[in-house]
Amino acid sequence: MDRTPETRDRAAAYPVRTRLAAAAVALVVVGAGLGLRAVATGSVAKYGGDALYTVLLLSLVVLVAPRTSPLRAAGSALAVSCAVEFLQLSPVPADLSRRSTVARLVLGSTFNPPDLLWYSMGATAGWLVHTAVRSRRVRPAPVRDAART
Questions:
Q1: How confident is the model over 69-92, as a mean pLDDT?
Q2: Which value, in Å, is the radius of gyration of the alpha carbons in the chain?
Q3: DSSP single-letter state for residue 143
Q4: CA 2 from centroid of its chain's CA atoms
Q5: Between vectors from CA 125 to CA 104 and to CA 132, what angle results, nearest 5°?
Q6: CA angle 59, 22, 37 (to 5 degrees)
Q7: What confidence tier does 105 reach under pLDDT thresholds 50, 70, 90?
Q8: Which of 10, 30, 81, 99 minimizes the number of CB atoms within 10 Å of its CB?
Q9: Is the pLDDT of residue 44 over 80?
Q10: From residue 80, how far is each of 10, 58, 70 by CA, in Å?
Q11: To which H or E segment does residue 118 belong?
């Protein structure tokens, strides 16, 4: 089935609007992550932050490439999250984290295998929300009567 301009979703038709929404989501996710760290401790703060980290990356992918599919955005965010986690097997993130709070927030410092599960949870949640928002926006083309045209 070919997608014509009438059936194409609005994310593809209105990339500026999609970028603005993605930027807003990114700001909300950063606020939620910082708020979570301020009010929660232990596993809730750590693993909730891991999931939010991947949701943030997903929103940044959509900000940069507004026409990308929800699955591709979620997969990209998950891949980057996992790459950063595996990078923590080297001494680089720990060294940078000692020097910079921003580096500590972005790169972390130590490898923790359960983080990979929580990144997957964040990617899945972000994919579900992104899919729901995009499918809600899709408007099928009106059916034309062949006798009228």
A1: 96
A2: 19
A3: P
A4: 28
A5: 135
A6: 55
A7: confident
A8: 99
A9: yes
A10: 26, 10, 15
A11: helix 114-137
Which candidate, 149, 138, 145, 148, places its Cα nearest to that of 6?
Answer: 138
pLDDT at 143: 62
3-state secondary structure 27-76: HHHHHHHHHHHHHCCHHHHHHHHHHHHHHHHHHHHHHHCCCCCHHHHHHH
Q: Length of the chain, please?
A: 149
Name the residue among 89, 110, 25 with its Cα closest to residue 60: 25
Token pair 């930027």 is at which residue? 23
Residues 97-106 have a mean pLDDT of 89
Q: What is the pLDDT of residue 130?
A: 94
